[in-house]
Amino acid sequence: MKMSSCTTVTMFLLSGFSELQILHFLLLFGLVSACYTVSLLGNLLIVVTVRMDPDLLQSPMYFFLANLSLIDMALGSVAAPKMLSDLLSQGSTISYGGCMAQIFFLHFLGGSEMFLLTLMAYDRYVAICHPLSYAETMHHHCCLGLLVTCWAGGVLHSSTQLVLVAWLPFCGPSKLNNFYCDVPQVVKLACSDTYVMEILIISNSGLISLVCFLVLLGSYGVILVTLRGRFGDGGGRKALSTCSAHLMVVSLIFVPCIFVCLQPFSNLQMDKMASIFYTIITPVLNPIIYTLRNQEVKEAMKRLRTRLWLSCWT
């Protein structure tokens, strides 16, 4: 693979909006604005609720849930503000440094979220399959260590992706067929043979996605087998409801990733839809799924609302 050290491109053109009419611009702006606002407020509400409720804060599951909400808030902020700005100005350009920053944070937060979802599945596995040793296994210091490992894994994954992309020379053209910078579209613009680089990039992302997905399937498979015959009692229904919410979130995260990994360097219009869904829609759906299907979170929110109401009148 022959590489050049010359990179003359200083600006990328984001062509994701080029084919839209004015009405479609306005509709997309309204959709993205609404989703981004709901994402920030919904995830912030979960973080504040867990932080202010002692019972939830001491539970590893809700401790991880609060961190998942933090990731979703940050993940939605990687692309949405720039997208809204581009829709208002109808000018879609991004600097080379800004593009590399988007790639880094997108994969850092996305990788951390995958690891965290896997950790949450492990937490549910220990709680349901080994309840007697749960408190000893998932103590506070252990949870902190596992969480730091998730973030470190995200940094390692993202740094690897960024190094592979930054090593490529870019000398034109500079038109990205998407709403924001991501690895597949940027790699296609490199003015050199990128076959080996594409294999390395796919291997890095694909291996993480595959391993996490298999661990998730294994964990929830064992949980379902353990819960077999207990779906009629209250504890079994509660555990099944929690696990089903986790599985819905896992599906929302992994299905778009698997779609992109299966055809990462294609030029299909569906890539844009997957990108929009992953960066804009998923951070909105996560808090909705967890709040609507989790009675403990809803009750904690009611207690928080009562406390805030009383504090306003005292």
Automatic annotation (TrEMBL):
The chain crosses the membrane at residues 28-50, 62-80, 100-122, 143-170, 207-227, 239-262, 274-292. This is Olfactory receptor. Gene3D superfamilies: Rhodopsin 7-helix transmembrane proteins. One of its GO terms (cellular component) is plasma membrane. PROSITE patterns: G_PROTEIN_RECEP_F1_1, G_PROTEIN_RECEP_F1_2, PROKAR_LIPOPROTEIN. Pfam families: 7tm_4. One of its GO terms (molecular function) is G protein-coupled receptor activity. It is a multi-pass membrane protein. Keywords: Cell membrane, Disulfide bond, G-protein coupled receptor, Membrane, Olfaction, Receptor, Sensory transduction, Transducer, Transmembrane, Transmembrane helix. InterPro entries: GPCR_Rhodpsn, GPCR_Rhodpsn_7TM, Olfact_rcpt, Olfactory_Receptors. It comes from Gopherus evgoodei (Goodes thornscrub tortoise).
